Each structure stands twice: as structure tokens, then as C-alpha cells.
Amino acid sequence: MQSQDVAQRHTKTAAGPEVGVDQAEAALVEHYPRLVRLAYLVLPPGLGRGRRVLTAHALVQRALPRGRRRKSVIPAQSAGRDGDPGYAFVRQEVVRTALAAARRRRPRLSTPPPLLPRVWGLRLFPRSGGADELALDQRLSALSGPARAAYVLRGLERLPDSTVRGILASAGADRPEAALTEANGVPAQDALLHSPEFDPCSLQARPTDLVRRRQHTKAALAAAAALAVCGALVTLPGGGWGPDGAAAPLYARNPAAEAALDPGKLVRIAPAAWRSAARTDFSVWPARGTLTGDRALLRRALAVWARPGETVRVSATPGTRTGGPAGPPQLLYAGDVDSARVVILYDGLRIARYAEPRDGTVGAALDFARVDGATGTEASALVLGRSDGNVRYVTAPWVRGAAQRDLMKPDAAPLPLPVTDGVTAPLASPALRTGGCTSWNVLQLTGPSGDQLHTDLGELVPAHLTAGRPGAPVEAAGAEGLHAWAPFACSLATERSVGVRGVNAWAFAEQRLPDGSGAGQWVCTRAETWRGGGTAALAQFRTPGRTAGAVVAKGADVAACGPRDPQVLAGVLWKARTGDWYLLAAGGPDVTAIRASGGITAAGQGPLLAVKAGQGTRADLNGTLKDGRTIGGLR
Prior knowledge:
32 strands
């Protein structure tokens, strides 16, 4: 449970708290992905993406205090992550060691312990972003180490300049004020800092220099091969060739593999086939676009899918394999999109999008997304491309109309969106937004079952939005769904590029505030993924007069707010107009009692609880359901 003044979160005012190893380790484990991203961004891009990844992980893993206890130089009021001094200490150490590495001509760690990350035979690097991420990386590479750290602490950690100045000084920067001034030369693009391009915890792997490795091991392999042959002649049974059994030799010609590379054997569906098909999914999409007859383009797309070269930027949603197709895939689209030629293919489980510049193939990109089990609404649209802050979609043949609407303005009418041969006109994409969140544009499609909403979260397949009790949600395009989503639309930003299939908003409770200022609204948003795991449930709370809600509790890979167990319990510390602090807690309709323990002891009957509490109090929540089961609160 997190504390929230609908105004500000509580932080202590005492300076220099003692930080023990256990406290620092807990903060490091909880916020490891964020700390590694921070280290990766502060390290000089000249290291190369693979070396930056391993160095970032090493720096974070070595950030714990050396002794059992150590005095933190970070004042408590500047501690990050809800005022946790442990996190502030680890963050300080990460910045200090990253700047120390940047100051060396050839940044490296001094003889890392054996347990630090080491990789042989593979190059690891984050998933590729777009042109905006590349431009930002180039601008950051031109900054000095302290200026780069200042920019990242401002944008990623949302710290004020006074706190950034203190962190830089404690990290050994000679001129923190000059670093802040230098960082001002790069426009703020906070959203891009959260891009997969800068995520060293979501990685792709490629082999190292195979020719050099072969040269280095040629003599050893020759000797080993002779020994292996002699041993095989003695030990192999008569019915096969070792673990591969009856498989053909490596690189043998395989008809299915060769067919997968032949543009003439691509599966093409008749334009009217979906009308009589037993199902509505990607398998009944016809091939559209002006370049469906360009065999050279299609051949390049298939070849790159099977064997992406070193210059191809490959990305995939989590849990999606990037290997070639098992046989001829289905062609969904081939045509010009803005300044690129785009081909979209489907192999029954995945969508693959190949894109190349109109004037050549340098800078080609290959993107993958899982779509297994997608039917109806989930198979209604795909992202064709993004440019200049906008996104274009190609829609299913059963879609009868398209519009765009601002999810934060539920009473505004949708704006019609022109569609030509299934391709929409461009609309503003929230996935490409930089800066604050004042609107959230979504795609509204009209299909056989009515209107539906989809939002771009930076992937090939837009996420489907619904509203209502888990297990029986309705389309978010209705009046009830639009009003449920409006105050919480900006929370969708936390689900970018993680393979989200759909997000449901469930308004599970309303609570009268103790000071008589009205009723607070409790909503749980749950994001489901294509891979099954990685689900996220966010409990959010909005008070009267506020246009947006605040995330007060969350859970990853939990059943809460989902169809398997449509239950939820969450709490928040809230400051009344009188200055008093209260613990507010709420559960779903099936909660019959709530108990608080830990920093405060209280209990109440029913799904709501409101008791006075001290500022900064932390409490554990438990609830009793109608069937007698007990549930814990989201944290």
C-alpha cells in the first residue's frame, strides 16, 4: 500500500538515514530493471550496446554497501521510490560508478567477481526502437557524463534540479551546475527514456564474429573432430546418427523451408472469404496494398525474416520467437506507408512486419508480435507504421468504419477517420508522446458487434480496451466504459511495449471521504498479455475535483481483478482538508470485512474502511470474502 496526499506523497525531513545492507538489497531487487536502465543511459554510448548492457548490470549488482551498515549521503527528502533511503543509496552508487566508468578512456570494471554477468559467443543488446530513440541516443552521446546523468535523472527519475545537483556532487562530478546547463541543450523527451531501446533487461541475442571464432579454434576443432569420429565408430548404434536420429545433415535442402522463402507460394486469401468463414481472425484477412505483386519486395521480406542481417533492426514483443516461418506464411499487406515499403505476414501464431526505406534496404526493420488465439475484436487492426508522432492502421475486412477519440474526454463525439482499402488516415499515437499526459487518443472501430476501442502501446497489435466486472466486461466504447476509463487513461503508459493483449477497467467501489468533501472512486485496471504471464493489476484512486486518478497499489502476475478471481483489496493514506491523515481501504463487492495491521490496527465490516492514521503510516490489509476466504491487499 502506498501513501498518497491527493496532493503529495509523504517523505521524511531528517537528513542522512542509516542504510543497512538488507534495506539496500531489498530496494535493488525491487527496482532492478529501473536501476539498470539508469546505468545504461548514463554510461557512454561509445561503449557499444552490448558492452553497455553488461556493464550496466555489473554496476547495479555491485551497488550494495560494503559493510553491514553504511551512512547514506542522500538526505531523506530526496530519496526516490516513495522516499525509500535504500533506493536512494543504491541509485547514488549506480550514478557514481557509471560516471567513474565514463571518465575512463576505455570504460571497464576492475576485475569483476565471477558472479557478475559474463557472456561468451553471443552479443546481447536491447530491442530496437525507432528514429526518435536513435536521435535521442545520438544527442546523449554528445553530452559529457555528468550532463548525461543530469538529463536522465531529470527525465527518468523526475527529480528537481536541486536534487540532481546534490546527486552529481556526491557522485564526484566537478561542476554539477555546468552539467545541468549542458543538459538543457537536449530537449526533454521523458517518454523516450522508457522505450525498449533503452531497456537492458529485455534483450536480443546474436552470435559474435563467427569467422574469427572459427579461425581461433580451427586447430582444436580438427583434433576434436578426429577424436569424435573415432569414438562414434565405436559407440554409435546401427540405427541412427546420435541425438539427431534420422535428421538430414545440417544445411540440407528442405522443401518446406525453401517454400517459406518463395514469394510465389505465399498464402493469399480471397477478398470475400471472411463472409462465409466459420471464424473471424487473421487467417481470413485478404492481402491488401499496392505492392502485393512486387515479387522482389516480397522475396526480400521473406529472406530477412529467415536470415536477418547485421544491419536489420529486429524487435519482438516479450515471449515472441523471432525465427523463420515453418512454411509459406500468409500475406496480409504489402504497400507504401509514408516513407517506407511495408510487408505484413502471418504464420498462424505470429505477425511479422518488414519495413524498408523507399530508396533502398539500408535501415530495414523486422518486428514480431504474438497473436495466437486472436479472434474477432482482437484481430480487427494492425499497426502499419508510425511517423511524426502519428500511427496508421490496417483494419480487418469486417470493419465498417473507423474514428478517433480522446479517452480523457468521454462526452466528446468521436472524429471520423478516413479508411482507404483498409488503411486508416494517420492519428496521434500516445505511444510516441513525450512530456505530460493531457490526452489519450484511441482508435474506435465499428464492426459486426458494434463499436470497440483500441490503443497503441508501441507494438504491432493495438490493445483492446474493455470495462466492467472481470469475467463479464463490456466494450469500453459505451458511455459507462468511457466514463470509467477517462480519469485513468494515462495509466496505460505503464503498459507500453510489454506484449499487452487487452486492458480492462473495473470501477469496484465508491467511498465517502471522512471530511465530507464527496466520494472517492476506486478503479482496478488489469492488463492481460499475449504470452499469459506478465499480467499487471493497478489499483487506482481518484478524489472529487481531480481529473486524473493515482496508482496507489499494484500487483504483477496476480489473479486480482482478473476473470479467474474477480476480487481486489487496496488502500491509501489520504490527507483531508482539515490536515488530518486517514487510512482509506476498499474492496470489491464480495468483501465483507477489512482488517489493517502493522503501522495501524483497525477493522471494519463491509467493503470499505476509513480510520485516522499518522502521516507516513504503513499498514498491511486483509479482507474476508462472502465465501469465507481471505485476500490480501495489493501493494
